[in-house]
Amino acid sequence: MTEQPYVPPAFPISIKGVVLDPQGRVLLLKNERAEWELPGGKLEGPETPEQRVETEIREESGWTATAGPLLDVWMYEPIPGRRVFIVTYGCTTADAHQPPVVSHEHKEAALFHRNEVPHLVMPQGYKDSIARWFELQDRA
User: Fold this and answer.
1) CA dihedral defined by 19, 46, 10, 36, rounded to 10 degrees?
2) What sign does the CA torsion over 12, 15, 18, 21 have?
3) What CA–CA distance (Å, rounded) separates 121 from 106?
4) What is the C-alpha to C-alpha distance for residues 49 and 42, in angstroms, rounded to an integer?
5) Do 85 and 79 form a contact (C-beta atoms < 8 A)?
6) Which has the closest alpha carbon to 119: 9, 44, 28?
């Protein structure tokens, strides 16, 4: 019996951004599972994680954002047996005075106040990242 080489598990890496508008509302997008999620996408190609989240926010909302601090990393299992490594950044934007557009990737885009987030259908990890970004903004 020959020994097989070790193959580590591979997970897609999804880079997400917490973006607030001037009224302090967070941008969320509704996906095909009817869950709210943060804008973002898979890390692939030559972009850095920060560049990836900036690109995804622009593509998914029409807003231009700048990636700020790393907020959190966590594993998410959107469907049984499929795990995704999530990385979230706090982001700032100068053009959030315009309503976000809805890309072909999502069913809806909406803005939520801080106290509305805990009641939304979305993964707890996203809620934790949003809360962390609000806490950092409170300290600024």
Assistant:
1) 20
2) negative
3) 15
4) 9
5) no
6) 28
Chain segment 59-91, per-residue pLDDT in tens:
999 999 999 999 999 999 988 888 999 999 999
- What would the pLDDT profile of 27-51 be if each residue is shown by its tens digit? 999 998 899 999 999 998 899 999 9
Non-local (6+) Cβ contacts of 92 within 8 A are 19, 20, 65, 66, 68
Tokens of 99: 């309503």
**Which of the 8 DSSP states describes residue 90?**
E
- Assigned token pair, 109: 């885009």
Closest CA to 15 of 58, 52, 61, 64: 52
